[in-house]
Amino acid sequence: MYAILDCNSFYASCERVFKPNLIGKPIVVLSNNDGCVIARSEEAKPFIPMGAEAFKYEHVFKENKIHVFSSNYSLYGDLSTRVMAILSKYAPNIEIYSIDEAFFKLPNLC
Description:
By secondary structure, the chain is of the alpha+beta class. Helices cover about 30% and strands about 25% of the residues.
């Protein structure tokens, strides 16, 4: 049997790893140069569309107490490596597709 791992709101989730006080609060992560929203937590999705131009939504960020982060690709890459290492312990034949996705075979189910 084959499976897929797709981490939920990965960049926003990574920001919460070292800031657990943000669990349950809305978060957005901005692109390089803070131009556009590239990731949203579930709590932020009702207020901010994906790809939104950040400067057009500054009032929405403030009104809804949305925590805004500049992208931190070193952090996301490090946490991705950790997730994939854990996955590879249980499913040694994995194909990493992107920073937060992988395909793998479940060894004892087929």
